[in-house]
Design goal:
The chain is α/β, with parallel strands linked by helices and 192 residues long. Helix content is 36%, strand content 20%. The chain has a single domain, classed as Rossmann fold, CATH 3.40.50.10610. The protein contains five helices and seven strands.
Length: 192
């Protein structure tokens, strides 16, 4: 009869220790896989948010496309309505494109001489100019927008207004996480 610790039991003890170690390693591996957090959702993108905003505008007012053609104004800083940036220009372009894909007829005004376009600013439209510019371009509506830079987010408000009386026909708001890319688009804001 073998006594505890005898030579006859040593191979079984080693086998039991090895099996226990393997089981512990297996459980540790499972716990590592089980505790992984889900992959981070992709950050919202300006183009995707603009397309969602355009769809929301048309969904909320299916008659919106009847107010074509539309001209697009450069989006401006909420803190200074005569100031814009690369972000203001590209966000206006993307939003106009998104509305065109929703069925809105968009008149390209950069091809015409009659709209004042200041280099590095874009097509700024203040309320006093709405009537004059819309009649010059035979537009029934105007895309306008403002943006505000916070510490962590950039807030964008966009709307389509009726040219005749500046009544809002559709609006949408969204926010973008403020990262280095957006900061770069906001740098060097210029005005007239």
């Amino acid at each position: 009869m073998a006594t505890p610790g005898s030579k006859a039991q040593r191979p079984y003890r080693r086998l039991a220790i090895a099996a226990t170690l393997l089981a512990m390693l297996g459980l540790a591996g499972c716990s590592t896989f089980g505790n992984t957090s889900p992959p981070e959702a992709p950050k919202p993108d300006l183009s995707a948010l603009a397309h969602q905003a355009a769809q929301q505008m048309v969904t909320n007012n299916p008659e919106l496309t009847r107010y074509s053609p539309m001209i697009a104004a450069t989006f401006v800083s909420i803190d200074n309505l005569s100031q814009s940036s690369t972000f203001g220009r590209i966000s206006s372009e993307i939003m106009a494109s998104a509305l065109a894909q929703q069925g809105m007829q968009v008149r390209e005004v950069k091809m015409r001489d009659s709209m004042f376009i200041e280099e590095n600013v874009g097509e700024l439209i203040l309320s006093r100019q709405v009537q004059r510019l819309s009649s010059q371009h035979n537009a029934r509506s105007i895309l306008m927008g403002t943006y505000a830079q916070g510490q962590d987010y950039l807030y964008v408000s966009t709307r389509v207004v009726r040219a005749g009386d500046a009544m809002v026909l559709g609006s949408a708001d969204f926010q973008l996480p403020l990262d280095n890319n957006l900061r770069s688009l906001l740098e060097g804001q210029t005005g007239w």
